[in-house]
Design brief:
Layout (H helix, E strand, L loop, with lengths): L1 H17 L5 H9 L5 H27 L23 H23 L5 H23 L5 H11 L1 H6 L2 H20 L5
Helix pairs in contact: 1-5, 2-3, 2-4, 2-8, 3-6, 4-5, 4-8, 6-8
Amino acid sequence: MAFGLSIVAMAYVIGNISGCHINPAVSLSMLINKKMDIKDFVGYVIAQFLGGFAGIGLLYAILSSSNIGTAALGANGFGEASAVGISMLGAILVEVILTFVFTYTILGVTSDESKGSIAGVVIGLTLAFVHIIGIPLTGTSVNPARSLAPAVIQGGEALKQCWVFIIAPLAGSALAAITYKFLNKAED
C-alpha cells in the first residue's frame, strides 16, 4: 500500500508541476500518445533516474544504520531472486501486464479533465493493486527508474537481471499507449 499511497500524495503535490511523471514507463506512454514532446521526455527520464538514485541513496543511508542492513534495498528479481522462483519469461509477462494495467489506467483517468480531482486516488490505488500482485512474483518494477538504482547498489544477480525490469515495463507501457490510442481513436 505504501507505493500506492505515496503516488496519491505525489499526484496532488507535484501533479500540477510535472503531471507527477516519476516513472519512465508513464512518460513513454504520454510520449506515444502525444501528451509530451521528445525534449520533455528526455529531460523527465534523466530526472526520473536521478531521483531513483537519490531515493536509493537515502534508503541505503537509513538501512545501513539499522539492524536490517542493506540487503533489503528492493531490487527486482526472478528465479532464485524471486520469492516464488518465477522464471525469466514469467517475470517478463508479469511486468508487461502490470505496467500495461498501470499506464492504461493513467492514460484513461488523465484523458478527461473532469476526472482531475480523483485521478491521483485512482492512480495510487491502481499502483497499490499492481504491487499487491507483483511483489511476491518479481518485487514489482513497473518503473525502470525504481529498478535500476537498487540493482546498481546491490550488484551481482540483481544487476544481471535488471534489464528485464527496464525493458518489460517499457514494453508494457508502449503496448498500453498503442492500445489506448487505437481504442480511443473516435475521441481524437
